[in-house]
Structures are given as C-alpha cells and as structure tokens.
Specification:
Structural class: alpha/beta
Helix content: 25-40%
CATH class of the largest domain: Alpha Beta
CATH architecture of the largest domain: 3-Layer(aba) Sandwich
Radius of gyration: 22 Å
Largest sheet: 10 strands, mixed
CATH topology of the largest domain: Alkaline Phosphatase, subunit A
CATH superfamily of the largest domain: Alkaline Phosphatase, subunit A
C-alpha cells in the first residue's frame, strides 16, 4: 500500500510539473525588460545598501523569483549584444563599446525579429548602443517602436560613427531636455531623461494593453552612467548628508530610477495589466563607482562584497541583480542559485512566446531558463561562461590580448587572467587565490578557453573596419533641422 501511495505521489508531482512547464511554454506573455546602466549588486537597499532608499525595487525583489548567480558582460554594448543574439558578444563582432566595434553583426537575427513573426509588438526606450548607422538601428533589428538617444550615452561622441545628436553633446545641463529619435523623427523632449524614457514606454505599453496585443518593452536606461547628474530633488538628500557631487548625482539617479520603476508598477496595477506580463529588472554590468567622499573623507561605496566592478572580469564586473516577476506563474521570494547569464534570455523569451528558432540563424550559446522558472531546483548541468574585457587598440591583433583580462566561470570555479583561481562555492568574494592547489582544474579550464577563443576569433568581424567618414546621427539631425525642423515631443497621457 505504501509503495502504491508513493508511486501515486510521484505521478501527481510529475504531472503537476509537466502542467506547469506546458503553461509557461508558448504562453505568449507580455515582456517588460528594465535594464539599467552601470548599476551594481550593491546599488539597491534590498541588497544591503544602507545609504540608498529603493523601496519600489525592494518590493519588487520580495515579489520576484531571483537569479542569484546571474552574469552579464563586463561592459555595456557587449551585454546588449549578448542579450539580443543569445551568444557571446565577440561572436557578433562586439569587442568594444566604440571604434566601430560596438556594432552588432548584421548577420545576427535578434529575438525581437522572431517575436515580431509570431505577432508581438516590440518597443525600445532609451539606450541602444549596437550601432548608430542606419542598418544597425533598432528599427532594422526587430523593433516596431523606437525611442532612443545615440551612441553609448547621452551626449557622447567618438571617432567614427558612434555619436549622439549634436544638441545633446553641447547641452550645459546634460540628461535634461534631450533630443531623441522617435521612429523616423528626431524630437525635442522636456525633463530628465529617465523620466522621459519611462513615460514614453508606459504610454506605448498602455496602448498595447488596450489593443490586447502581446508586446516586448525594452526600457534601457542611460542612468546611472556617468556623468552623474540627477534632478535636485533626488541629489539633495545626499548633499545634505555630506557626500561629494559625483556620489550625490549617482545615488540620486538610482533613487529616481526606483521612483520610475514604482510608477511602472502602479500603472500596471491601475490598468490591470499584470496578468500574463513578465517583468524583469537587471543591470548591464558591474558597479561603476566604488569610492566617494563623505564629509571630506574618502569612503567606500557599498559593493555587496564583490571584488572589482565595471570592466573587470572578476565577479564584481559580471555578477548582477536579476529579478523576474510573472503574476501567478512564478513563485514570489524564491532564489534560483543556478549559474545563468544574459545569453540565456534569447531562448527563454522565444520559448515563452512560442517561437521556433530557425536552424539557419547564428548558433545560440545560451539555454532556456524555462525549466528553472518552473522549478528553481530543476537539474541544471554545469557549464563554462567566458568573459573578456575586450577594448584592445583599434587595428591590433586580438591574439595579443587573448590573455588580457578574461575569465572562465563554472558553478564552482572562476579562472581569471591566466593566473588566478577562486573557489566561488567557498569564496564568492574572491579573497584567496587557490591556483597552486588545483592544477587539474586550471589545465581543464585553459583547454576550454583555448577552444573557445579559436572558435570565436573568426567571428570578430569588426576588427578591421575603418572609421566611418561621418556620424550618422549628426547627419540625420542637420538634415531634419534643415528640411522640417525639430518638433517637440508630445508625452502620452497615462
């Protein structure tokens, strides 16, 4: 009798799991991805920061399923390329953030292109940073709605094609009243950039909700990237506490993000739009600023204990927050400890949307996260994740930088710079180099890295591309200014 009972229990458990998995596969949820710029693990109060106040994201954290070992690339354009291609950024030609090496290869099929094919509307609001030339723009990479600045940040300009619109580059009050490309028209906005991007996104989301159209909304913020500027109402508290100007601006930007995320949550409530909507909050790389000045004394910025930050191949450069919420589908307050990454989002979104990934597109490096979303304790085979700082000089042989800052990560180990090994299972903050104690591990990871590098090198298609003779967004701006002017943007009513 007991044996039969156990068999019945096992059958019911398996049946339930199968039902849950099926309910996620092809469920066609709306997807809202909020991606911030240069915000690290220590930049939220729910992660232990006692200076910042982020009540809305703290609430979202408590509601969410959290990936607690989630990784991205060390810098911003590479992360974005990996998200949209499902493969390591170098395999899309993205080996830098500038110098024509931020452009995602045109041979890449993005997941928004695949979502469009099954009826999704797709919108981007904020930062693109995967090529400013027309062929690389988001409206040619699968997005039906575009609302973006140029380059990698508002006001940035570099040799070659990577440059924001001229008024943003000369503004005395950067991040305020910017010009933005809205689909095929450059428009003049009013207000702080993060507020504007959220307002544009929310107006578009409301429209999709009212039309009952499935959608992917990509809210990709310039903040809290430097220069660190925030509305005075957000920086004032940190000024009064005695923090330096840079910290005032950066922390103010983060608290402004939190308020805007709270607005997103409240509007989804108001519109009864949480049903069948997956909302994700994450950041694009590790923390950019690690020290400030408090009352004249140099003071560490809270990092949640992680070693190094943006641009590094240590944990602090690639380990980021990743909070996922899907009402009545995902469990609240649950941690998923499996080793996961940005490259996994491509297959995940396609599986959820009921997309069959074509055989003739680029090879996908990532896995679907659906099994883990269904069961956080699901079997998850160990893997190697490869990280590289990139950013070697233009025209240089990439092989000369093969062992420049790089890392190989498995569930247990992080092999860094060809000379350091950390046992992450015991030492998540990388305090003790144990390379001499585990030569067999080092040998295996070196072999894997050598194989990966050899496979990846031919795919770095932007290495010998000459600088473009003009900056596309500059040309576009002056042409529109001359022919029809720059109209004011009319914010949507929420």
């Amino acid at each position: 009798m007991r044996y039969c009972y156990l068999l019945l229990l096992l059958f019911l458990t398996c049946s339930l799991s199968a039902t849950e998995i099926t309910s996620l596969q092809g469920a066609k949820p709306n997807i809202i991805l909020v991606l911030t710029d240069d915000q690290g693990m220590g930049d939220l109060s729910c992660m232990g920061n006692e200076v910042l106040r982020t009540p809305h994201l703290d609430k979202f954290y408590s509601m969410s399923t959290r990936f607690t070992d989630f990784h991205v690339s060390p810098t911003c354009a590479p992360t974005r390329s990996a998200i949209f291609s499902g493969r390591h950024e170098f395999r899309n030609g993205v080996t830098h953030t500038v110098k024509e090496r931020e452009r995602m290869a045109l041979s890449t099929t993005t997941f928004p292109q695949l979502l469009r094919a099954v009826g999704y509307q797709t919108g981007i609001f904020g930062k693109w940073h995967l090529g400013d030339e027309d062929a690389y723009q988001p409206y040619n990479r699968g997005f039906s709605e575009t609302f973006i600045h140029g380059a990698g940040g508002i006001g940035q300009s570099y040799p070659g094609s990577c440059a924001d619109f001229p008024p943003n580059r000369t503004a005395t009050n950067i991040y305020f009243d910017n010009v933005i490309l809205h689909n095929d028209t450059i428009v003049k906005t009013k207000g702080f950039c993060t507020d504007v991007f959220f307002q544009a996104a929310l107006g578009w989301i409301k429209k999709q909700h009212e039309s009952k159209t499935p959608y992917f909304a990509y809210i990709t913020l310039n903040a809290p990237h430097d220069p660190y500027v925030a509305p005075e109402k957000y920086s004032r508290r940190f000024a009064e506490a005695g923090w330096d100007k840079l910290t005032q601006g950066r922390y103010g930007m983060i608290e402004n993000i939190d308020d805007n995320f709270g607005l997103l949550m409240s509007k989804l409530d108001e519109w009864s739009a949480w049903d069948n909507t997956l909302v994700i909050f994450m950041t694009d790389n590790g923390q950019a600023r690690r020290h400030g000045t408090l009352k004249g004394q140099q003071t560490p910025i809270f990092t949640a204990g992680f070693k190094s930050g943006k641009g590094s191949t240590y944990e602090g450069g690639t380990h980021v927050p990743a909070f996922w919420y899907w009402k009545d589908k995902l469990k609240a307050g649950v941690d998923i400890p499996a080793l996961t990454a940005h490259i996994d989002m491509y297959k995940t979104f396609c599986e959820l949307a009921g997309v069959t990934i074509p055989d003739d597109i680029q090879e996908i490096d990532g896995r679907s996260l659906v099994p883990l979303l269904t069961d956080p304790q699901a079997n998850w085979e160990d893997r190697q994740l490869f990280f590289h700082q990139g950013r070697w000089e233009k025209g240089a042989d990439p092989n000369e930088s093969k062992f420049a800052p790089f890392a190989v990560r498995t569930t247990r180990w992080r092999f860094v710079k060809n000379r350091e090994l950390y046992d992450i299972s015991k030492d998540p903050y990388e305090t003790t180099n144990v390379i001499d104690q585990h030569p067999e591990v080092v040998a295996k990871l070196r072999i894997e890295y050598d194989r990966w590098w050899a496979e990846t090198l031919p795919l770095m298609v932007n290495e010998n591309v000459p600088y473009a003779p003009e900056q596309p967004q500059t040309v576009r701006y002056h042409k529109q200014l001359k022919t029809r002017g720059i109209p004011n943007w009319t914010p949507p009513k929420l």
